[in-house]
Amino acid sequence: MSRTRVSTRWLLVLGALAAVQAVLIIAFGPIGTALALAGPPLYALAAWVSVLVLAVACHFDLRPGMITLMGLAAAIIAVPFSVLGFLLIPLITLQALAMELAAFAARRLPTWSRAFLVALAGQTASFFMSLVVISPENLVPLMILLIVAARLVGVVALAIASTYVARGLRAAGLERSIEGRA
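^ that's the sequence the OP posted. Answer follows.
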């Protein structure tokens, strides 16, 4: 049985990306809380920001489990600063897992198709988990339809943003650095 080793460079880059993801989660916290109080569709419209770095990571050929691990690390870092507390861990980790599985399934598709599938997987996971925290009086068909529509806009925004950020990171040499050619 052969064991594949993960280089220190990979771990450092993934740790740095997890830290950036945690900062995004923390920064989005007060904005997300205000949007959620104003209305669930407003929160759903902007929630994609909290998983942007995970979606960017899906553009790179990482080893299995790395994106999920990155999501877990980001969530653990952000827990003390989030109003969600420990609920943040399954929320972000399950989104990361869904996005990683979508990236693996779509690995042979063109960049934009892969980006949209990854974003759709992340937003779908987030949608179903958010149903738990939405108050029952807001779970009427019109509200659910508005939330779904907002999540679909979020899918498009996440796919576009992650693709352009990944292109910028590639141009800056991130992929060569990860592979040890820098």
